[in-house]
Amino acid sequence: MHVLQTPDERFRDLPGWTFPPRYVHVGGLRLHYVDEGPAGAPPVLLLHGEPSWSYLYRTMIPPIAAAGFRAIAPDLVGFGRSDKPARRRDYTYARHVAWMRGFIEALDLRGTTLICQDWGGLIGLRLAAENEARFARIVAANTALPTDDDPPGRAFRLWRLFSQLAPRLPIGRIVGAGCATKLTPEVTAAYDAPFPSERYKAGARQFPVLVPASPDDPAAAANRWAWALLARWEKPFLTAFSDGDPITRGAERPMQERIPGARGQPHTIIRGAGHFLQEDRGEELARVAIAFIARTGGASTPAAG
What we know:
The chain is α/β, with parallel strands linked by helices.
């Protein structure tokens, strides 16, 4: 496997980004992550999606850490400061799940609250369903766990077509198009930072075609099995979707209806946000998550000072 690493200088002086890089090796690949808050505190795992990176959580990490939790935000393989296999065929849905499983095992995360959006949910919901003992609760935000039973909508089909046909994949502009608020040029550049050239975008190119959409898709059976496990999930489960996301609109309803732990929870619609609600309303989403953890018995470690 030929692997690319984005030069460190690409990540200097990014607006709002003050977190020191940390690394762990999983399956021969170097994964980057942010780790803020008391070391022994209950972990909150923040999983980003396509084509963003942990920068998406920059306004959520400080309040979660200040509330006494350990905020952990990894970069998926192919994104951010994590290693980037150069060939598209090196990326599969199963490998992404395995890489993140290796990550939580390497850090030995337990009693974890999962906050997941976009592909962070496609991976994270599988991860939690298959490793329930390590997770205490889930916050699902603008995400889904698709199978061939639910064909993708028009907005996603158009995005997938664009992602495969566009000669250049303008990552920062793509993230901006998925926001309700206008990104500054500096923030747009921060989303472009992990990708010095098109060679680094194999993972971003491949993600859209990995979404299960047919019965013979290699991930369809695994996702159906994960749904069967989630149908027995009694731990707290909250949906916090935005009001302005055409990609995942309505995907919260199957979760609320099929997952036992979702019953009776104060499911939230965050107003004035697009697909990347962490960018539009990150601090609000952090408040929702912190209140949910507190309400469902999640203990925190008092912050120093």
